[in-house]
């Protein structure tokens, strides 16, 4: 579906000296607080990335994934791009093609699907991408 | 008199394609004659909402004026689960709405959509702020709620007790659908939902009872069939987006309506829609003497990609359909 279609652009993946960076768009139609970021899971060529090797970066602010639930006063504007900065050994090389799997789950803070349970919009994308 | 309009929510795919600025999107609505009403969701269209600087507010008003569009409704959100550790308190919910009422006033919107999350206390406390700002609060009745739901009866009771012209209802046609859109089920089947699971989804959707229980029954069935988890998770939308209440249930509340969300999912070239009973819905409004906007709100973006459906074309067809039905009503 479409909210999924815009999450990863063709040029979303970049090689860095200590791993890679992945540009991510929101999988919802409106701006959400950073506290809504519930699930971020990454797999490269079938190999899962450790959660603490991922830094979520938006508008110049870097956050460990475990810091996000407390950041309900910060917004992810619907058209803005977040970058996942990932430490990985060996780092990706420019021009390297990989099979990437991203699971992005956002808690939707105004849709309760049970008493005190919010809807989680979970998007799983599997794509072969070339690192820039 | 019933006037037509467009909610920019209908153009979610176009907006997310990042090919349009807000100015270009509004201009395109006007060029295609999809006004005069223009509605936005604050958290979708405006960066840093609900903080909107005065320059941005006056630019927005000038933009609509330039294109001869009329601000119809600002969609607010009540993000009760903003925090992970607890739901917002009543005080916090009132503050959350207060900031958005202020933006509605400054942008020139006569109505603000309020999402109903159970507490009428919050509404009662927000109402004086809305009166001061001269913004009418419209409590949205959206699936899985409907006009005959007990929690909506509480809102109607408050509206009638307070008798304020600044408090009313916004029917969302999602509440009274005749069936799930065939195009949505087709799309989900193509994305890996087994046909048998899709049938069970329709059956659970038609049943009465708490939506999350019906979803859970569907999900358990789909899992047994070995359906992929994302396809199961996706299908939850059927229960949060679509409801099957009787359209006639709107009749009792028409006199309280301040704005209408004409939700739809797929209007074909012959102007047919298999899921939303437009004719009956418009007749109920006309019979009830409704005076205001019917704002076209296409939500096919929840399952169609930009290359599959053009949001502008969907709204154009929807307007053509509404005009035809209103002419006959």
C-alpha end-to-end distance of chain A: 26 Å
Query: What number of domains of chain B?
Result: 2
Query: Low-confidence parts of chain A lasting 5 or more residues at pLDDT below 50?
Result: none
The CATH class of the largest domain in chain B is Alpha Beta
Q: Looking at the structure, what is the overall shape of chain A?
A: globular
Task: Kindly identify the CATH topology of chain A.
Answer: Immunoglobulin-like
Number of helices of chain A: 1
Question: What is the chain-wise order of helices and strands of chain A?
Answer: HEEEEEEEEEEE
Description:
- The complex is a heterodimer of chains A (132) and B (329).
- Helix content of chain A is 3%, strand content 54%.
- Chain A contains one helix and eleven strands, in the order αβββββββββββ.
- By secondary structure, chain A is mainly β.
- In chain A, the strands form three sheets. Chain A has a five-stranded antiparallel β-sheet with strand order 1-2-9-6-7, with no helix packed on it. A four-stranded antiparallel β-sheet of chain A has the order 5-4-10-11, with no helix packed on it.
- By secondary structure, chain B is α/β, with parallel strands linked by helices.
- Chain B has helices spanning 12-16, 22-31, 42-45, 54-66, 90-107, 120-133, 150-162, 182-190, 195-206, 211-224, 229-234, 237-241, 278-287, 311-328; strands at 2-7, 37-41, 70-75, 111-115, 136-141, 167-171, 260-264, 292-298.
- Chain B has an eight-stranded parallel β-sheet with strand order 6-5-4-3-2-1-8-7.
- The model of chain B has no long low-confidence stretch (mean pLDDT 96).
- Classes of the chains: A mainly beta (132), B alpha/beta (329).
- The A-B interface holds A 1-3, 5-6, 25, 29-33, 35, 69-70, 72, 75, 77-79, 107, 109-114, 116-120, 122-124 and B 9, 12-13, 15-18, 41, 43-44, 47-49, 77-85, 87, 115, 117, 187, 191, 211-212, 215, 229-230, 233-234, 236, 239-240, 301-306.
Descriptive labels:
heterodimer; A: 132 residues; mainly beta; Immunoglobulin-like; four-stranded antiparallel sheet; 3% helix; B: 329 residues; alpha/beta; TIM Barrel; 8 strands; globular
């Amino acid at each position: 579906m479409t909210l999924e279609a815009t999450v990863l652009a063709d040029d979303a993946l970049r090689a860095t000296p200590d791993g890679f960076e992945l540009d991510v768009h929101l999988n919802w139609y409106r701006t959400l607080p950073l506290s809504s970021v519930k699930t971020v899971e990454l797999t490269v060529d079938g190999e899962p990335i450790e959660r603490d090797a991922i830094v979520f970066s938006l508008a110049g602010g870097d956050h460990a994934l475990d810091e996000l639930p407390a950041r309900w006063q910060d917004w992810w504007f619907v058209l803005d791009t977040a970058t996942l900065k990932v430490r990985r050994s060996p780092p990706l090389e420019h021009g390297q093609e990989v099979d990437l799997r991203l699971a992005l789950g956002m808690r939707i803070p105004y849709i309760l699907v049970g008493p005190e349970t919010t809807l989680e919009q979970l998007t799983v994308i599997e794509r072969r991408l070339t690192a820039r | 008199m019933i006037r037509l309009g467009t909610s920019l929510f209908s153009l979610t795919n176009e907006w997310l394609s990042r090919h349009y600025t807000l100015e270009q999107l509004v201009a395109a609505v006007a060029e295609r004659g999809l006004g005069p009403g223009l509605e936005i969701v604050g958290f979708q269209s405006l960066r840093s909402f609900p903080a909107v600087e005065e320059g941005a507010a006056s630019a927005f008003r000038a933009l609509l004026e330039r294109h001869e569009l009329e601000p119809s409704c600002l969609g607010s959100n009540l993000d009760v689960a903003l925090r992970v550790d607890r739901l917002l308190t009543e005080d916090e919910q009132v503050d959350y709405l207060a900031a958005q009422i202020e933006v509605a006033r400054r942008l020139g919107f006569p109505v603000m959509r309020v999402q109903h999350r159970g507490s009428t206390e919050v509404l009662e406390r927000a109402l004086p702020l809305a009166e001061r700002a001269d913004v009418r609060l419209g409590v949205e009745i959206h699936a899985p709620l409907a006009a005959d739901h007990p929690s909506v009866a509480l809102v109607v009771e408050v509206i009638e007790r307070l008798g304020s012209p600044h408090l009313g209802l916004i029917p969302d046609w999602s509440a009274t659908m005749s069936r799930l859109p065939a195009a949505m089920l087709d799309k989900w089947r193509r994305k890996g939902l087994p046909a048998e699971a899709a049938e069970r989804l329709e059956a659970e959707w038609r049943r009465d009872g708490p939506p999350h229980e019906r979803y859970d029954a569907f999900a358990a069935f789909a899992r047994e069939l070995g359906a992929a988890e994302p396809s199961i998770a996706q299908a939850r939308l059927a229960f949060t987006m679509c409801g099957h209440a009787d359209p006639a249930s709107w009749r009792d509340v028409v006199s309280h309506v301040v704005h209408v969300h004409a939700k739809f999912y797929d209007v074909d070239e012959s102007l047919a829609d298999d899921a939303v009973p437009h004719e009956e819905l418009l007749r109920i409004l006309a019979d009830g003497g409704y005076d205001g906007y019917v704002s076209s709100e296409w939500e096919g973006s929840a399952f169609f990609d930009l290359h599959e459906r053009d949001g502008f074309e969907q709204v154009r067809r929807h307007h053509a359909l509404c005009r035809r039905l209103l002419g006959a009503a």
